[in-house]
Write a structure and sequence with these properties.
heterodimer; A: mainly alpha; 2 helices; rod-shaped; B: mainly alpha; 8 helices
Amino acid sequence: MTFLSAHRNGVLCLLAVTTIAGCATATHGAGSVSQTSAAAAAAASTTNPAPDTSAVDQQVGSIDNQLSTIDGQMNAANTGLSTSEGDPAQ
Amino acid sequence: MNTRTIARGAATLTLTAGLGLAGSVAAHADTTPVPSPSATPTTAPHTVSLAALKVRCNSAVQRRLGTLGADDTFVKQSSALTSADQAALESQISADQSGLTALDATIQGDTTIAQAHTDCERIVTGYRVYVMEDPKIHEVIASDGVSKVDTTFEALIPELQSLINASSVSTTVKAQAQADLNDLTSKVSASRASISGVTASVINLTPAGWPGNQVDLKSARSNIHTARTDLAGARADVSHILQLLGT
């Protein structure tokens, strides 16, 4: 029984070590894949850079705000042009 | 015509005038906060007393001062106005505010109905706040705003050109983007042409020129509208270009 027990513990221990090693390898492998992808992305980025549109976006945002202001002012002007002064003396 | 008929006629006139004034204020309320007028017409007297006339005139002055105050805020806070136009409008508003305040004091000191009546009419004829000053101010802000947007577009055009040139999209798509940019450039130029001289055509209009100068206000409105339409087209071109380039 003692021999069997020791043998069983040895097998379990071996399995555990193998599993840990496998996990470590898998983790390391995954890390490698990730690094490779990043490198590929970086390479692609160098060959075909995405255009930086932040300045354009900022100007377009500014234009939209200004157009909105113009519309508000024109609505206000239209109101004045379609109203009458009244006559408080009457 | 007996006395009762005359009284009824006077009541109708007073009610009509009261509602007309209220209607004018209501139409203006969308743009400028003004004190709410009483919707209930006052009891129609056979003749308006001097005291009642003074109250009515004071109310008319206060409403106009409210409108001018709101306009002054617009002018002070506007980032579209050029500094020269801003200064000119502020000066005009300030002059109107001082003039109306002084006129109100004059009316409150009047000792006859005839005097008060004549002075009260000057609230309208001397200032034309609702029909001329206020729309003029808004048109100048809008007109200067269009010019400012034109300038912003003109700065944007070379940046969009760079994006098109550097883009990796197909030749066909790049050609479409270039066509949009050409259209944008054309629309901004058209907007510039439409808005040219608009501010100058209205900023110095005075109540003395009323009603003739109403034509100038309407012409300015039409030109601003045309320029604004071109800017809308230019803005749509920008969106299409960015869409084509996949940004």
